[in-house]
Prior knowledge:
The protein has helices spanning about 5-10, 60-80, 105-120; strands at about 25-30, 35-40, 40-45, 45, 85-100, 130-135, 145-150. By secondary structure, the chain is of the alpha+beta class. Helix 2 (about 60-80) crosses helix 3.
Amino acid sequence: MDIEQRLKDLGIVLPETPAPVGSYRPWVITGNLLYVSGQLPIVSGRLACSGKAGDTLNVDTAREAARITALNGLAQAKAALGSLDRISGCVRIGGFINSAPGFIEQPAVLNGASDLLVEVLGEKGRHARAAVGVSELPLDAAVEVEFLFEIITD
Length: 154
């Protein structure tokens, strides 16, 4: 599958990748693995969704925030690899959902990221994952998601 063409067919334009705001790398390649640092639901340089799922956010809104993080994760992967066609599979994602006490639908929220990866990457987008509720996230973001991709090396 031509992933770059699939994005065009879906009408998806990946966002620009922001510079890191700390002493970390937005991505690291080691061997045939690409690790993408945790992504927030940033759109046009601004946080698109803040608050706690189960309190100020419903599941659908938080799920959309997770979808945005997946777009940002793919944008970072493209910056790292030059072309998404070098991705041979998504190995794992880790989702952190800013959750109100008693909120237990973290997997439903993280489906926003999982579904986008499968939509874009097809079967290569199916992955292992963890959906974890947390009490706070940077900038009060609704969701943060990290990614691990297997890649084709030169």
